[in-house]
Design goal:
The protein is an alpha/beta fold and 213 residues long. The chain contains seven helices and ten strands. Strands 3-2-1-4-5-6-10-8 form an eight-stranded mixed β-sheet, sandwiched between helices. Strands 7-9 form a two-stranded parallel ribbon.
Length: 213
């Protein structure tokens, strides 16, 4: 399996790279600005680095040839998402996992929902929702990850999933858990994650705000 990680120099991108190398036999293409200076190919036989911009559709399409899964960590950048979608269609790639944020369907109830909207801002949520919608259609075999507030805790890979249409539950989740979820999605032997939009949080964190605020 060939996996393209867009935004590979970010924290989740780095953690996902390590987890995929240890838990799968996949070949990884790590795509980022100045990737060659910011990243190292831990296993040169399985890892290739590509310097590139998300909006460079021609370069993206070139490196998507033969790719099975694309993981996007573009933080709701609308122009980037349009370029990525265009490149995927040009290269004939349909499977995509997109890291988005909670609240894009106004699905976060109660005090936490009010806190989240105040902290993120309604205009930012609308922007991310528009960017996410580029992939949430029949043209792609998508998995949308609506991530709650992130923190790091080594060894904590616990996550809880809610489906689109359900109230979002959980105020925080570790980046380590998100990396493990990516592995679980990519290695799934059925289609249970395909064409889904998943709320991602840590179990037992149904609070008014994350513990680190």
């Amino acid at each position: 399996m060939n996996i393209l990680i867009l935004g590979a120099a970010g924290q989740i991108g780095r953690m996902a790279t390590e987890s995929l190398l240890h838990q799968t036999d996949a070949t990884l293409l790590l795509y980022a600005r100045k990737a060659s200076s910011r990243l190292k190919a831990a296993d040169p036989q399985r890892v290739r680095l590509v310097d590139g911009d998300f909006t460079d559709t021609q370069t993206l399409a070139k490196h998507m040839q033969g790719v099975d899964v694309v993981y996007i960590n573009a933080a709701g950048d609308l122009d980037a998402m349009r370029g990525i979608a265009e490149a995927m269609q040009a290269a004939g790639v349909k499977r995509v996992i997109d890291a988005s944020i909670l609240g894009i369907y106004d699905e976060v109830p109660g005090a936490f929902g009010k806190w989240n909207k105040r902290m993120v801002g309604a205009s930012r949520i609308r922007q991310v929702a528009e960017a996410t919608s580029i992939f949430e259609n029949e043209a792609f075999d998508y998995t949308i990850l609506r991530l709650t507030w992130l923190y790091n805790q080594e060894g904590n890979t616990k996550y809880r999933l809610t489906q689109k249409g359900e109230p979002f539950v959980g105020a925080q989740v570790t980046r380590q858990a998100v990396a493990q979820l990516l592995v679980d999605i990519i290695t799934a032997t059925d289609n249970r994650f395909v064409k889904t939009s998943l709320g991602v949080s840590e179990p037992n964190t149904d609070w008014d705000k994350p513990s680190f605020y």
